[in-house]
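Tutorial handout. Part one gives the primary structure; part two gives the three-dimensional structure as tokens.
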Amino acid sequence: MQSVVTFEKPLPHLSLPDWDARLYGLQVTADTRRADAFDLRHSAHQLRNETKIKTEWDSYHNNNRLRARVYEIEQWKSTLQELLDRLDREMSALKEEKASTERELEQLNMPLLVCSECLSNRDGRRSSELTYDLADTELKKELCVTESNKKMLIDRCQSAWEKINKLEVVKFKLQLDLNDKNEALQIDKDMLNLDKDCANITYKTDSLKTPKRMITYEQWLEKCEATKKMAMDELQDTLRLRESLFVARGRARNALRAQTDVTNYMMRRRIYDTQRARNELQWQKMKMEENMDKLASELKTIGEQFADKVNALKVAETRLETRGYRPGIELASDEADVGLKEEVRNLRETIRQLQEKQDCAKATYNALEAASIKIAIDLNDKEQSLETDMQALEMRTALEPKRPQGTDKNLILASMKDEVPNIEN
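Part two.
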């Protein structure tokens, strides 16, 4: 095989002016390209510097904004946490006040039972002793005061129960808001620690979109202020309610104590009046019996005198009648006859007077006996009434407050009762 040798076509020869023009054109093109490259490098350097500075400043400002937001959320979180703690304390205090009021309400059952029992027993009095006296009036007043106190304490307990339920709702809202703030705070802290060197950064689709639930900062601030105001208002209402519970218990105790003292005084006064009336009736009965004994003795004496005068009259009439049988002229109206007739007339008048006096004495005796029977009946009624009032007063001793003795009294006077543990025997 023989190789074929080929020859390239020679380029046309340029003239010197064309060569100079071509050289000049290459120089101009090179200078232009270098100038463009310089401008491009300069503008790129400037752009890099500007974008770097802007990016750093934007990142700095946003970091500061995130720090400010974290600080603000922490402040609100601290405020809400403090409100939540105060709310828990107020709820505990309100529950204690409610429990104390319920115990006070249960303690009213004893005065109510004692007062009703006293009224029921006093209704068993007999005859004229069943009167609307001051003790009966004060017992009914005490019953009304006890019922009024009971109704007032029931209303306060109902208000406390409703307030506790409302505080539970407010507590739930505060906890929900705190949970949201804790989650938002954690997110903002994570974003504050996020930088370009982190591994979990990626492109996001439509990162500039606005969520549907997003609200403005002013609305968020208004909601926070509203939550705070709601909690503060409830705390103030709870404080006033606790004070009203304490005042209601004290007012109920004082009113019942005052009415109990008045009722006890009226009961003792009624017992004193009944005892005085009983003593008076006993004295009257004793005097009646003495007079009846004397009158019975007098009646016996009058009867004896009456029988003696009757016998004397029989003697005189017998003499006078027998002397009427004298014979002849011996039947004369002599001094003996006149004397006997006068004696008969005197004896008959004496017997008549004795009979009248005896009838009057018997009537007086019967009146004394009837009065004595009435006094005895009234005395028995007063004895029964006195026994009833004494039993009622003895029953009311259960309403007297237990006064501390010995060490307990010293602890109360020294205000150390709550500091010393209560040891049950």
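Part three, for discussion. DSSP finds six helices and no strands in the chain. The CA atoms of residues 244 and 332 lie 119 Å apart.
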